[in-house]
Design goal:
The chain has 457 residues and is of the alpha/beta class. It has a single domain, classed as Aldolase class I (TIM Barrel, Alpha-Beta Barrel), CATH 3.20.20.70. Helices cover 38% and strands 13% of the residues. It is built from eleven helices and 14 strands. It has an eight-stranded parallel beta sheet, sandwiched between helices. It has a two-stranded antiparallel sheet with strand order 3-4. A hairpin with a 2-residue loop joins strand 3 and strand 4. Helix 1 packs parallel to helix 4, helix 9 runs parallel beside helix 10 and helix 10 packs parallel to helix 11. Bound molecules: phosphoenolpyruvate and cobalt (II) ion. Cobalt (II) ion (CO) binds next to loops. Phosphoenolpyruvate (PEP) binds next to loops.
């Protein structure tokens, strides 16, 4: 393979980049961005990579979730806190059911750039650049809002920093303390059809915690502090490049804008610019894989992105859709296993299941989401590999964007609180319900495995 440099991606075909009219303004923004201090550190990044390596071996489970697209106007304390709360609740449920530690990775603090099918959008004879996420332009359909403004790269970076700063302070202040799960209660928890199940689980965990602490005569482990890691689609390559640095005492280049950037499905061409950029960074990375990816292409991707077969380096985030996973996933899993590649298999049951209602509203059916996840568990169990994570679009708020779930949200109900700027997200209740289902499934697998011999965690 050719020599990698920080800018070698610029020699490749680069997809999904905004067109900027003023290249001087763009260069100036990128240059200023590249001087600002990093958002995350190399030791956090390396810590996450170790944890992901354990997840690939079945000793941890990855929970990656958050908005499809963050927007600048929602960089607000209740919205951020609610997202943390639902991720904490889900991870508590998963730890309990799966008997494994959970790695919490948010789709936050930088999820501001979106791929689009066209550079331009036309409505009633009027044409403007497509909305490519708040990092690039604004969603309103007029010339001013759709102007691709390089200064927004700096605004996005600043909001990512504000978001991370708030998350870090909450976590350091004890917000995530397992002794106080009531800190994470969301107002409507009491009204959820699954509330009783969740409350019982919280009480059980509280009881065991008190029991262990009484025996040990001290607080158990690091239970009053959990880690959150950040992730976003590494789509806007000048933004990513500006935050990619060398650090003292460690070899290689680190993307210090997020712990775990991922390559979106539309930019995962093995010979494209995104794969070229990503192959040179030391972070753990994800790649979205969907139908149309053949085993040979996947092996090519893996060999480029993880030539040393480093554990924890590569997470394959599969998003086929409930009707396609049964034919699409098994040949890929088989091929990767035969070659002995060490990867973490993760299921994104959202992006292959997006549909439109009769009225044209973009939604996802809860049943389809559950079905894809269930099938992913089955496929890995049949082949003898491990499904080590889920990747979900969710919000801690009470939106109505996906149909179904315990409350049986209908197509008509979608209008009540449909807020997403891009893809429909699970609301708080649906996300918790999904976690309960996954946890049940994981605990059944443990019971089944126990019949064959002891399970070592
Ligand atoms: C996304 O994660 O929001 C997304 C665009 O996904 P994909 O690349 O899988 O289509
Ligand atoms: Co999305």
């Amino acid at each position: 393979m050719t020599h990698w440099t920080l800018t070698s991606w610029q020699q490749k075909q680069v997809k999904q980049q905004p067109i900027y009219l003023d290249s001087q303004a763009l260069n100036s923004a990128v240059e200023r961005l590249s001087k600002l201090p990093p958002l995350v550190t190399s030791w956090e990044i390396e810590g996450l990579k170790k944890q992901l390596a354990e997840a690939a071996e079945g000793r941890r489970f990855l929970l990656q979730g958050g908005d499809c697209a963050e927007v600048f106007s929602e960089c607000e304390s209740p919205i951020i806190a609610n997202k943390l709360k639902i991720l904490l609740q889900m991870s508590l449920v998963l730890v309990h059911g799966g008997k494994r530690r959970v790695i919490r990775v948010g789709r936050f603090a930088g999820q501001y750039a979106k791929p689009r099918s066209d550079d331009f959008e036309t409505r009633e004879g009027e044409t403007h650049p497509s909305y490519r996420g708040d990092l690039v332009n604004k969603i309103g359909f007029n010339a001013e809002d759709r102007f691709n403004d390089p200064e927004r790269l700096l605004r996005g970076y600043e909001r990512a920093a504000l978001t991370l700063n708030f998350i870090r302070s909450l976590v350091d202040g004890g917000f995530a303390d397992l002794h106080h799960p009531e800190y994470w209660d969301l107002d409507f928890v009491k009204h959820s059809p699954r509330a009783a199940e969740y409350q019982k689980l919280v009480e059980n965990i509280g009881d065991s915690l008190r029991f262990m602490e009484t025996l040990a005569g001290r607080q158990v482990g690091e239970i009053n502090r959990v880690d959150f890691f950040s992730s976003h689609e590494g789509l806007h390559l000048l933004y990513e490049q500006a935050q990619t640095r060398r650090v003292p005492h460690r070899p290689g280049w680190f993307n210090l804008a997020a712990h775990m950037p991922w390559i979106g499905m539309r930019t995962a061409d093995p010979d494209g610019a995104h794969v070229e950029y990503f192959r040179g960074i030391a972070n753990p990375i994800g790649v979205k894989i969907g139908s149309g990816v053949e085993p040979d292409m996947l092996l090519d991707l893996i060999e480029r992105l993880n030539p040393l077969n480093e554990p924890g380096r590569l997470t394959l985030i599969c998003r086929f859709g409930a009707d396609k996973i049964a034919s699409g996933l098994p040949p890929l899993v088989e091929a990767v296993r035969r070659k002995g590649h060490r990867v973490l298999w993760c299921c994104d049951p959202m992006h292959g299941n997006t549909i439109r209602t009769a009225e044209g509203i973009k939604t996802r059916r809860f049943d389809h989401i559950v079905s894809e996840l269930e099938q992913a568990f089955d496929i890995h169990a049949d082949i003898g590999t491990y499904l080590g994570g889920v990747h979900i679009e969710l919000t801690g708020d009470n939106v109505t964007e996906c149909t179904g779930g315990a409350r049986g949200l209908s197509d008509q109900g979608l209008k009540e609180s449909y807020k997403t700027f891009v893809d429909p997200r699970l609301n708080y209740e649906q996300a918790l319900e999904l976690a309960l289902l996954v946890a049940q499934r994981m605990s059944r697998m443990i019971d089944a495995a126990a019949l064959d011999g002891p399970v070592v965690f």
